TrEMBL record:
GO terms for cellular component: cytoplasm. This is Thiamine-phosphate synthase. 4-amino-2-methyl-5-(diphosphooxymethyl)pyrimidine binds at S107. Belongs to the thiamine-phosphate synthase family. Pathway: Cofactor biosynthesis; thiamine diphosphate biosynthesis; thiamine phosphate from 4-amino-2-methyl-5-diphosphomethylpyrimidine and 4-methyl-5-(2-phosphoethyl)-thiazole: step 1/1. It comes from the Bacteria. It is an enzyme of class 2 (transferase). Keywords: Magnesium, Metal-binding, Thiamine biosynthesis, Transferase.
Length: 208
């Protein structure tokens, strides 16, 4: 079943002084229609309450909510889907757990991983990157793929939406779209600036 996948994925981040709930309120009120809750610090019981609070905000604004990694929580939260950052995860099992109606996104760092994911037949979109270096992470040896990395995709016969991710700045958007990617995912370029809501609006103006 083909599912709608937005051209713009806003990702929350664990930040002092700017909670996930505040981030989602900011993004939705600035017009974001696709929110990924990406919390790497809280225990599961706290996650459920926070996700459901965030789900209410998303409902109010008509935004889609995706949760990062915690697919086992899908029956306890009001979210449209999950994003899995481990390419080696057992994706057919995850699909069985979440069901056919939920959206399943997965991260990939090279073309072999993209093709491997495609062969599973259970993924709705790929997040492919990093496009550039990710300022919020320790270097993990992954090589930024740059514009050329996305241009190679046409030859591969990838049929599922590809979302560019990792180190994307506003000024990269036009050139990224020209490579043929279906959308972009952004966290730091919004969450770490003085006026994140204005930045969300600027990303939307570039994308639509
Ligand atoms: C849309 C989207 N893209 C990427 C990620 C997470 O990034 P990744 O590098 O795959 O995972 P970490 O190891 O950094 O957690 C995401 N959550 N969503
Ligand atoms: C957390 C994360 N890691 C990525 C990787 O490719 O390793 S992409 C990503 C999502 C956010 O990226 P940004 O903050 O640069 O927008
Ligand atoms: Mg990463």
């Amino acid at each position: 079943m083909k599912k709608y996948v937005s051209k713009f994925h806003y990702l929350t981040h664990d930040l002092p002084g700017f909670s996930h709930i505040q981030q989602v309120q900011m993004a939705c009120s600035a017009g974001a229609n696709w929110i990924q809750y990406r919390c790497l610090t809280k225990p599961e019981d706290e996650l459920v309450d926070e996700i459901n609070e965030i789900a209410e905000i998303c409902d109010e604004w008509g935004a889609t909510l995706i949760i990062a990694n915690h697919y086992d929580l899908i029956d306890r939260v009001d979210a449209q889907g999950v994003h899995i950052d481990d390419t080696d995860a057992d994706l057919p099992t995850i699909r069985k757990v979440i069901g056919q109606d939920k959206t399943l996104g997965v991260s990939a760092a090279d073309t072999d991983e993209l093709l491997k994911l495609q062969s599973t037949g259970v993924v709705d979109y790929y997040a492919y990157g990093p496009f550039a270096s990710v300022v919020t992470e320790e270097p993990d040896g992954s090589i930024p793929i740059g514009f050329n990395g996305y241009r190679q995709l046409e030859k591969l016969g990838i049929e599922i939406p590809v979302i560019a991710v990792g180190g994307i700045q506003l000024g990269d958007v036009e050139n990224l779209l020209q490579t043929g990617v279906d959308g972009i995912a952004v966290s730091s370029a919004i969450n770490l600036v003085a006026d994140p809501a204005t930045k969300v609006k600027e990303f939307y103006r570039k994308l639509y």
